[in-house]
Amino acid sequence: DAGITQSPRHKVTETGTPVTLRCHQTENHRYMYWYRQDPGHGLRLIHYSYGVKDTDKGEVSDGYSVSRSKTEDFLLTLESATSSQTSVYFCAISRRGTNEKLFFGSGTQLSVL
Amino acid sequence: AQKITQTQPGMFVQEKEAVTLDCTYDTSDPSYGLFWYKQPSSGEMIFLIYQGSYDQQNATEGRYSLNFQKARKSANLVISASQLGDSAMYFCAMREGGGTSYGKLTFGQGTILTVHP
């Protein structure tokens, strides 16, 4: 157990509405990541954070923003959800001294109708 | 070009037999890391094994070993003595570069492994 909680676990929303996904960790790790998983694409990096207020874009960041005002919380926001953002979203942390392993949360299934 | 290629969409193996899942990668960076993750039907992502580009020995973790052939740019996962619980999706992933690339992985499309009793 990597101490990562994602909320909500499932969400259905309509096109054009804002959506925020939350990742909460209890182990005070600096590095946190958001990935999305889609069939045929594996997982792709959306945004990442190396500390409070230190965030940057990943491979598929268009349409997403993030915020990290506290070490334990990393928020992913879809400002205006589109059907192409229907996906499973995973939050991950990396622990110092673990050969750069990523430890993932349980994922959020998001459906945009 | 695909950075990580998993050419086997699905694989079948008999319980207690060994199975190899293929992964080839493409990078020009001399420093990189290769990972394998397992995703059972429950959906969680489970770390299995890691190989660094400068590691001299092939990585092993229990029944998992990574057959690292640097010149061929391949990083195949070998699962020995397959168990029914090994049935899952398996992802190969790569991190290119050093510290600033920490945690930024590129994943392959995955291979679904089915273990038959």
Topology diagram in text:
The complex is a heterodimer of chains A (113) and B (117).
Chain A: E1 4-7, E2 10-13, E3 19-25, E4 32-38, E5 42-51, E6 54-57, E7 64-70, E8 73-78, E9 87-94, E10 102-104, E11 108-112
Parallel strand pairs in A: 2-11
Antiparallel strand pairs in A: 1-3, 3-8, 4-5, 4-9, 5-6, 7-8, 9-10, 9-11
Chain B: E1 4-5, E2 10-14, E3 19-21, E4 24-25, E5 32-39, E6 46-52, E7 60-61, E8 64-69, E9 74-79, E10 88-96, E11 106-107, E12 111-116
Parallel strand pairs in B: 2-12
Antiparallel strand pairs in B: 1-4, 3-9, 5-6, 5-10, 7-8, 8-9, 10-11, 10-12
Describe the structure.
The complex is a heterodimer of chains A (113) and B (117). Chain A has no helices and eleven strands. Chain A has strands spanning 4-7, 10-13, 19-25, 32-38, 42-51, 54-57, 64-70, 73-78, 87-94, 102-104, 108-112. In chain A, a hairpin with a 3-residue loop joins strand 4 (32-38) and strand 5. The model of chain A has no long low-confidence stretch (mean pLDDT 93). Chain B is built from no helices and twelve strands. In chain B, strands 2, 5, 6, 10, 11 and 12 form a six-stranded mixed beta sheet that branches. In chain B, strands 3-9-8-7 form a four-stranded antiparallel beta sheet, with no helix packed on it. Chains A and B meet through strand 5, strand 9 and strand 10 of A and strand 6, strand 10 and strand 11 of B.
Q: What ranges of chain A have pLDDT less than 50 throughout 5 or more consecutive residues?
A: none
Gross morphology of chain A is globular
Largest sheet of chain A: 7 strands, mixed
- Cα(first) to Cα(last) distance of chain B is 38 Å
Give the number of helices of chain A. Answer: 0
